[in-house]
Known about the structure:
Layout: H1 2-11, H2 13-65, H3 70-79, H4 84-111, H5 113-121, H6 127-152, H7 156-181, H8 183-204, H9 222-256, H10 259-293, H11 297-310, H12 312-324, H13 326-333, H14 345-367, H15 371-396, H16 398-419, H17 421-425
Helix pairs in contact: 1-2, 2-4, 2-7, 2-8, 2-9, 2-10, 3-6, 3-9, 3-10, 4-6, 5-6, 6-8, 7-8, 9-10, 9-15, 10-14, 11-14, 12-14, 14-16, 15-16
Amino acid sequence: MYPKFINFIKENPLLKVTSLNSGAILVKMITGLIISKLTAYFLGPVGIALIGNLRNGQSVINTIASSGIQKGVVSLTANGKEKKKLLQILTNTFFSLGLLVSVVVSVFLLLFSNEVSFYIFQTNSYIWIINLIAFSLPINTLNLFILSILQGLSDFKKVISINIITSIFNLALFSVLLYFLELEGAFVTVILLSTIQFIITLYYAKPYYYLFRNLKLFYFPKKIVFSLSKYGLMTLISSITFPLVYLGIRREIMVGLSNTDAGYWEAMSRLSSHYILLMVSIINLYVLPKLSSANNQNSFKETVLEFYKLIIPFYGVGLIIIYALRYYIIRIVYSQEFLPIQGLFLGQLIGDFFYILALVMTYQMHAKRQVKRFLVTDLFLAIGLYVFSIYLLDIFGLKGVMYAHASINFLYFLLVLFIFRKPLFNQSK
Length: 429
């Protein structure tokens, strides 16, 4: 029985990628949970809320610096991986764009560090944090592109190894800096992690150094740039809108309730991010490259149904277990101080379930550059989440934000399902 199960995994590409990736995700989850525990112990709910603000702010900055084209890098690399010369042209274009835009964004941050600090933290005390982000930005952008190239080339083992080592470094650096520098140390770790990962990525990318020979600065072939611009528009809308929405919701909670309640909400979101990470990683590693190289609607249907059949049942059972053990999870991951978030679990888990059901379908929009569809669905989700959260926050308090999360993600799933109803439900002839 056991050998048959192992062979079944080896023969199924999706399960094979999932099993390879599970080690990296397990390490990242464990290190992430330990980091959450340390943060709760040393900084409490208010510290967790401030770190959440930094993560959201940095996410917006990183997305703008990378032009939001990382999914485009994956897709174009996957399509051209059999053509060495084309890959070199693509790589040159990626790096020219990355360096140009990231340097421009860095200069902007240095010039307006005071305003950016106040927007993210509601104080000018962290100007030095904004400056540190500015100086590390070009390296972080190049790191992101190299990882995307490796992913597009389907070199999953290298990507997974990089992620494992990065997670271990993250825990070590976070622990030391948090102990000696407290909140400022946590901030520095969040900012410099991608820079550390860049060194690790360079080591693992050695077999592909030939792609970086004869690189030219300011190399922008119109056809490739135009193709990337569609991916960029989609990712920029998503990756900028949602962090801004989260910042807005967190501010409303701070003003309407308290900083501690904002910390509770961030703590629940951080817990959610750990298991969502597993699902998104599987979709990024397996589903996106497969959809990018597919030439017909049947491939989309087969990929989505395969994911639903093989992955979603485990995901659903996992969410039920998390809900049943929520008291113990809070005590282990955080502390008794965070027990009030027990009431937030149900809405969060329901919303997360429908979000993943929808997400695997929306990757077809990235793969096939369906810009209008993506903008409609993503803006629907972002604006709906903010509006529902603000409205229900006034009625139900902090639980209202969770009701909003569950409601809008269910509606988001129905909208995406409606958009893809023909390729999913029509019988092929």
